[in-house]
Structures are given as structure tokens and as C-alpha cells.
Specification:
Helix content: 40-55%
Structural class: alpha/beta
Strand content: 15-25%
CATH class of the largest domain: Alpha Beta
Radius of gyration: 50 Å
Number of domains: 4
CATH architecture of the largest domain: Alpha-Beta Barrel
Distance between the termini: 150 Å
Strand order of the largest sheet: 14-15-17-18-19-20-21-22
Shape: elongated
Number of helices: 25
Number of strands: 23
């Protein structure tokens, strides 16, 4: 049974067996025939011995004849076997080369025919899978190359029509902003050239819930969809519809519907359509992400206005139109005055709300053809195309400024801001977007310097001033190495005892060609060039070394005061630098006083407070300069660790005028309530000194006592002043 079930059960093997059996009988039969013939030929009555002898003589001839017969049988059988094998090999090579349409048709009813049929079935299956994979690959390429959902769905439907025959494809896309609405894209799967049809339809909460419950897909009767989504409407209720939700992350984005004619749906088709649904979900997500990236790249995320990049693009386009039509165009550069105060006092969230409200007002105050863009911070640009001249621009700019002057209601408080505005006009002020924006920015800064809350048209003199400032920036970079920078010192006196309690170190720059540069110019240039840290380190070391020399000469002075910028204060190595300078000069921390502006403190209150406490631990005193001119919250001042406040000279120079006197009294009252000493700077008359002493201002500074002097000259003045003061005390005690 085993042999019959294996060998005789195989038709090709059976054929080979009988061929070889027949071939093995040929020599025997042939030999017998020759033997009998030879025996009868030699003897009429053959004997056994004669027969054997005849057989021996006939065998070689029989063997030769049988060999020829075997060879012919082997050739015939080999050709019969090799012919279908060669056709099978050729078909295999074509399939391996991607020709899945190859068919191998063999005659007969043996295993070769069965193998050929199996190969044909495999080729059809591989061809279908390859078509599906190719379609999915093309769809992936479309997702990467296109940002338009409609175009992707059109191409997807066309490719599906070639792979899923007898199938109608529809895609439902739910609107992300309005989930009660959707778009339904449909196309028949017959491979035609028609376009996808698009229908707007409503999506009920019940439909969304029903789709979400389909999980990864389910086959539904057409009638079940007709009641839930009438716009889909399969042609026959006997159709079966594969419903696959389109889900990305946790959000339902829509659904894929594949309507099959009765009896045509197969499991492989369901799998490929599931892959297709995944691709469509990715395509929708990729498209939305692309649109978000485009929006982020071209629009300000806070206000929704065009950003700097889009502003430049639109300005270039507007300039091209203005040149072609020979029209004028204006660029308005706006910077909000007072925004920093709102940001610092009410917080960044309140500042953001103000910026959004300001953006709405600016947009409402412009024409439909105008562009309002936010460059960043509190800076805006308005592009005004098709203007007739400066008079029309003035009217438009005035409406912009008017829109911003009304109070902003932020967190239950009224906030007031204004705007400094710079204006340029094409073609008078420039021919490129970059030039017009730069000059409008220059004009805006001129408006700020002129007192803020005003607009200024660009003038050539402004460019000259900017050029001059840039030259100073360049020269300042080599000023320290060329020993052009130096320090002068001005004393601070106790107004009751006339004793010098501190010397303030003041930075000066003597330019090789321009002479002495005003401090009001030097300090802003320092900030702009980024040299404030290196020059600040030099100033600190030099002032402490000078104090050490005065003390070695026998001149008694408690401490020296050094001005420090915000950048220096927040530098990670600032406290270590002070420790190093004190160590190298062998001076205690009580010999140093740091002067800061209010603005540097409110920039980052918590960080500033930490640094001030570290300084206080070393005995270093802190004074707030220009008190009353900044935007510090009294709550912050109450918590900060500082020792003195300096009343700005702007309040002192008006004394003894009643208004100035009222302001000085108020500042003194606030400072004394915080238990801080007060320094009045800018005292130039004895009447001012007496008035301040009467108001119990502790310390005074100004030209009345001494002008700023170089280190050696200041040391001499200190000695003379101390001697004079002691003589006056002696005379006073002697009556």
C-alpha cells in the first residue's frame, strides 16, 4: 500500500517506472528471439547445449539493439518531461520579473498541469497584491507631495478603481472646526475618468457615535447606511458596505465607505481597504499639519495677523503693483508706548490680551486693501497701497493712533497706551521692501525720542543720525584697548554732617576725533554693541582699585558706587566677579555699593531679588537709581532687598517750585515708609540743599558740592574737603 500510495499514486513516476521496466525486458526478449532463430538455423533438432551456445552468440547483437531502443525511449520520455518543465521555468522567470499576467497552460492530466495551474493562481494573487502595494505606495507619495486633501482623495479614488473592481468608494471628512458638518467624496470603482463628486452633508452626534463604534471596520447592509447618511445612498439595498472609521490619535476624522456588489466582497479586499483607510487618515492629518505649519510660518500665533515673513512678501507684491500702475505706497511702523508697563505690572497674560485687542483695533481702522502685520513684541507694520500722498497718509495714520488711545480693559483694570509711529512713502523714501521698512523703523525711533505718542515721516537727516550712531558703535569696540575710556568720581554727602559717605564712579569716553562723548550717548551705544559686560567688569575693578589707592594715601571714604546694567546683574558670573575684585583689592564688601535702575529689577523680580540677597550677605549695599521715573510696583519694592533710593535730578531741578516740592515730598514719604535712605542727585544750589535737608533727605549729590573728577584729583578733593569739614566742626564747637 505504501509503495502504491507513493510511487503509483504519482502519474509522472508511474510513467517512468513502466518505461524502465519495458526497457529492461527488451534485451531478454531480443536475446531469446536471436537464440531460437540461430538454433533452428544450425540444427533441425536443437539441443539444450546448442541453445545455450546460440544464446551466447546472439546476446551481443541483442544488447546493441536493446541499447538503441532504450536510448530512443529515454529521449522521448525526457522530451515529454522537459517540455512542461521548461515552460514552467520560463513562466517562473517572467513572474520573478514582475510580469504577473503570465499564464502557463499545459496539456494532460499529470502533476505538471497541476503545478502550472498553481503557478497561474499564484501569479494572479501576486499581481493583485503588487497592484495594491503599488497603489498604496503612490498614495504615500501623494501624501508627502501634496497639501490639498481634495487632490489626494481624487488620486486615491482613481487608484482604488483599478485595484478594487466592482467597488464604489466614498470618503466622509468631518470638518475639524464644525464637527456637525462634513464633506462626502464619491467615485465609482469602474476605472473611468470621471472626477470625484463632492457633497456637503450634516453629521449628527448619533452618526459620529455609530461610526466610532465600528472600531476597525465592519460590513454593513446598504439599508443601515441609507437611514444614517442619505447622501451616501448605495444603488441597491443588496449591496454590502464596508465601513472603516478614519481615526488619527483619539479623534474621529471621518470614514471610508466601500460598497460592493452582491457576492463580490472577499477577505483580501477588506484587508487592502483597511490599509487604504489608514493612508487616508494619515493624509488628512498630514494635510492639516501642513496647513498649520504654513499658517505658523506666515501668521502670528498670538494675534492671527501676518508675521514678519508674510509682511515682507506682501510688501514686495504691493511694490510690484505700485511700480506697474505708477502709484504711491506707504509703510507705517508702529511701536506701542506703555506696553512694557502693562506687561510688567499685570503680567504677560494681560500683555498678550492687550496685544490681541490692539491688533483688532488696528485692523478695524484700516481699509480692506491694507495689510496689518505684527513683527514681534509690540511692533506692528501697516502697508497702505494706492495712496495719493502724505496728506492722505496722515489721515490714515491719525485713525490708527486714535484707535489705540482709548482705554483697554484688561483683568478689570483700565490700561492706557499710545503709539510712536514712523512713516515712509514709495518711491520717495526707497524702492525695496527692506529699505522702506528700515527707514520707517528709523522714523519711529525718532518719534519716540521726540516724546512718544506721535508720528514722524522719514527724513534724510535721520539716516545721517543712524550712520553716525553706527560709526560710534564701531569706534567703541576699540575704545577700551586704546585707553579712551576712563572713570570720574562725584561725591555723595550727608546733608546733615557734610561728611562724604560714598563716591559714585561715572564712565566717560574721550573720542580721538570727536572729543568727550556725552554719557547719554555712550550708555545706549554700549547696550547696542553688547560691550556692556566687558566694560562693566573693567569699571568695577578700576573703581575698587581707585578706592584702595585713596585709602592707602590716608583718605577716608566708606565706599564707592558703581552702576550696573540689567545684563550684568543677571549674568551667571556677576557675584563671582565681585568676589574676585574684592579679593584682589583686599577690600570688604561694605566698601562697594551697586546702583541699579527700576527697569532692571522688574524685568525678572525673583531673579533680581536672589542676586540682591547674595550681595547683602557680603555686606554690599544696593541703591535704586532714577527712582520715580520707572514702573516699579510698590509691592515689589517692599519685598526687594535694597538700601537706598536716588531721586532723579528731573525732580530736584524744579525746587523750590511747589509742584516739584510736592513730588519730592511724595518720593521721600514712600522711601522712608519703606525704611530706605534717600539720595537726591543733581543739587546745584544752596536753596535746593536747604530744602532737601529740611525735608529730611539724608544724602545729596551734585555740582554744588563737586563736579565729577578723575581719580587723583578726586583724592585731593577728598583730603581738602575732610580738612575743611573738621575745621568747621572745631569752630562750631568753640562757639
Amino acid at each position: 500500500m505504501g509503495f502504491k500510495g507513493t510511487l503509483f499514486g504519482n502519474r509522472v513516476a508511474r510513467r517512468l517506472f513502466w518505461s524502465f521496466a519495458l526497457a529492461s525486458l527488451v534485451p531478454i526478449v531480443t536475446s531469446a528471439v536471436f537464440t531460437v532463430a540461430e538454433a533452428y538455423r544450425s540444427s533441425p533438432a536443437p539441443t539444450l547445449v546448442g541453445s545455450l551456445a546460440a544464446l551466447g552468440g546472439a546476446y551481443p547483437r541483442a544488447l546493441a539493439i536493446s541499447s538503441v531502443v532504450i536510448l530512443l525511449l529515454a529521449i522521448a520520455q525526457s522530451r515529454r518531461i522537459l517540455r512542461p518543465l521548461s515552460r514552467l521555468v520560463a513562466g517562473t522567470r517572467k513572474i520573478a520579473g514582475g510580469d504577473f499576467a503570465t499564464r502557463v497552460d499545459l496539456d494532460g492530466d499529470d502533476e505538471f498541469r497541476e503545478l502550472g495551474n498553481a503557478m497561474n493562481a499564484m501569479a494572479r494573487k501576486l499581481g493583485r497584491q503588487f497592484e495594491t502595494l503599488t497603489a498604496l505606495r503612490d498614495i504615500d507619495g501623494l501624501i508627502l507631495a501634496s497639501s490639498q486633501t481634495e487632490g489626494i482623495l481624487e488620486s486615491v479614488a482613481a487608484r482604488v478603481a483599478t485595484t478594487e473592481h466592482g467597488c464604489d468608494i466614498a470618503v466622509l471628512l468631518i470638518d475639524g472646526d464644525h464637527p456637525e458638518l462634513a464633506r462626502l467624496y464619491r467615485r465609482s470603482g469602474n476605472g473611468g475618468a470621471e472626477k470625484c463628486s463632492q457633497v456637503r452633508c450634516a453629521v449628527s452626534p448619533e452618526l459620529r457615535q455609530w461610526l466610532a463604534q465600528r472600531d476597525r471596520g465592519s460590513l454593513e447592509q446598504a439599508a443601515a447606511l441609507r437611514s444614517r447618511l442619505p447622501a451616501l445612498a448605495p444603488p441597491d439595498d443588496n449591496y454590502r458596505v464596508l465601513v472603516i472609521p478614519l481615526v488619527h490619535g483619539e479623534q474621529l476624522r471621518g470614514a471610508l465607505f466601500a460598497a460592493f456588489q452582491p457576492g463580490t466582497v472577499a477577505e483580501p479586499e477588506l484587508d487592502s481597504l483597511g490599509e487604504l483607510a489608514n493612508r487616508i487618515a494619515v493624509a488628512i492629518s498630514a494635510t492639516e499639519r501642513e496647513q498649520q505649519l504654513v499658517r505658523r510660518a506666515h501668521f502670528d500665533t498670538l494675534t492671527g495677523l501676518p508675521n514678519r515673513q508674510l509682511c515682507h512678501d506682501r510688501l514686495r507684491q504691493a511694490l510690484a503693483v505700485a511700480r506697474r500702475q505708477e502709484q504711491k505706497l506707504a509703510v507705517v511702523f508702529i511701536d506701542l508706548d506703555g506696553f512694557k508697563h502693562v506687561n510688567d505690572s499685570l503680567g504677560h497674560a494681560a500683555g498678550d490680551r492687550l496685544l490681541r485687542e490692539a491688533s483688532v483695533r488696528l485692523r478695524a481702522a484700516t481699509r480692506e486693501t491694507d495689510t496689518v502685520a505684527r513683527l514681534g513684541g509690540d511692533e506692528y507694520v501697516v502697508i497702505l497701497p494706492s495712496v495719493h500722498g502724505a496728506l492722505e497718509v496722515e489721515v490714515l495714520v491719525a485713525s490708527l493712533m486714535e484707535a489705540l488711545k482709548w482705554p483697554f480693559h484688561i483683568d478689570g483694570e483700565q490700561c492706557f497706551i499710545s503709539a510712536s509711529v514712523g512713516v515712509t512713502i514709495f518711491p520717495e523714501d526707497g524702492g525695496t521692501a527692506e529699505e522702506l521698512l528700515r527707514k520707517a523703523d528709523t522714523a519711529m525711533y525718532s518719534a519716540k525720542e521726540s516724546g512718544r505718542a506721535r508720528y514722524v515721516f522719514f527724513a534724510k537727516e535721520m539716516d545721517d543720525r543712524i550712520h553716525d550712531r553706527r560709526m560710534l558703535q564701531s569706534d567703541l569696540r576699540s575704545a577700551l584697548a586704546n585707553r579712551e575710556l576712563f572713570l570720574v568720581y562725584q561725591p555723595q554727602l550727608d546733608l546733615a554732617t557734610h561728611e562724604v559717605v560714598c563716591a559714585e564712579a561715572l564712565l566717560r569716553w574721550r573720542h580721538p576725533t570727536r572729543g568727550l562723548i556725552a554719557p547719554s550717548i555712550v550708555l545706549p551705544v554700549l547696550e547696542e554693541t553688547g560691550l556692556v559686560e566687558s566694560i562693566g567688569r573693567w569699571t568695577l575693578r578700576t573703581a575698587l582699585e581707585e578706592l584702595s589707592r585713596w585709602r592707602s594715601q590716608g583718605v577716608s571714604i566708606p565706599r564707592v558706587a558703581v552702576n550696573v546694567t540689567t545684563r550684568q546683574l543677571f549674568d551667571a558670573g556677576f557675584v563671582s566677579l565681585i568676589d574676585e575684585c574684592l579679593h584682589s583689592t583686599k577690600l570688604p564688601g561694605s566698601c562697594l555699593e551697586i546702583e541699579l535702575t527700576e527697569a532692571s529689577l522688574v524685568t525678572d523680580f525673583a531673579r533680581a531679588d536672589r542676586v540682591l540677597r547674595e550681595l547683602a550677605e557680603r555686606g554690599i549695599r544696593t541703591a535704586i537709581d532714577d527712582f520715580g521715573t520707572g514702573y516699579s510696583s510698590l509691592g515689589y519694592l517692599k519685598e526687594l532687598n535694597f538700601d537706598r533710593v536716588k531721586i532723579d535730578r528731573a525732580f530736584i531741578e524744579g525746587l523750590p517750585d511747589e509742584k516739584s516740592l510736592a513730588i519730592v515730598k511724595a518720593v521721600l514719604g514712600i522711601a522712608h515708609s519703606l525704611r530706605k535712605e534717600v539720595i537726591a542727585e543733581g543739587i546745584e544750589s544752596d536753596a535746593q540743599r536747604r530744602q532737601l535737608a529740611k525735608l529730611q533727605c539724608e544724602i545729596g549729590q551734585g555740582f554744588l558740592f563737586c563736579k565729577p573728577l578723575l581719580g587723583p584729583a578726586f583724592g585731593e578733593w577728598l583730603g581738602q574737603h575732610e580738612a575743611t569739614r573738621l575745621l568747621k566742626e572745631v569752630f562750631a564747637s568753640n562757639g
